[in-house]
Amino acid sequence: MGEGTETFGVYLKKLRLEEARIGLRAFANLIEMAPSNLSNIERDRIPPPTKTDKLNQICDALGLPEHDERRTKLFDLAAQSGNRVPADIVQTIRDNPGVPVLVRTVANKQLDEEKLRKLNDYIKQFY
Fold first, then answer.
1. In the chain, which stretches have pLDDT less than 50?
2. Which of 14, 25, 27, 110 is least crowded, fewest Cβ atoms below 10 Å from its Cβ?
3. Which CATH number describes the domain made up of 8-86?
């Protein structure tokens, strides 16, 4: 990771300590993980979990509501660590056949960051 790049482990540790205020061993117990594995994830020595269930368990233990931006960021950072599609997005694609069409359309139009932001804002109007 480049300098200044926030990783899953660094962000998880920050949320655990600063927001949830839970010690490492207690948090590891909450998420059914060995404390040594949690420590190694937070120190970027081993990759973060890839399964949606485990990531949701972590987010729930942190007290992050379902549509919280911090929850989304954890999923995104977990995926970035292995150049994967975020686990929650994979499930969305499986559950909604129109999503791949939308993604291909966005890719074919080669939308820049500003246009993607505008598209996102437009879609948010409907929920």
1. 1-3
2. 110
3. 1.10.260.40
Are the beta carbons of 71 and 30 closer than 8 angstroms? Answer: no
Q: For residue 13, which of 33, 34, 42, 35 has the smallest C-alpha distance? A: 42
Instruction: Give tens-digit pLDDT for 21-34.
Output: 999 999 999 999 99
The domain spans of the chain are: 8-86, 96-127
- Cβ neighbours, 10 Å, residue 16: 23
Distance CA 43, CA 1 (A): 12
Helix (H, G, I), strand (E, B) or coil at 15: helix
* CB-based contact 88:59 (threshold 8 Å): no
- Report long-range pairs for 79-85 (Cβ below 8 Å, ≥24 apart): 80/8, 81/7, 81/8, 81/47, 81/48, 82/47, 82/50, 84/50
Question: How far is it, in rounded angstroms, from Cα 115 to Cα 12?
Answer: 30
Q: Provide the pLDDT for residue 9.
A: 97
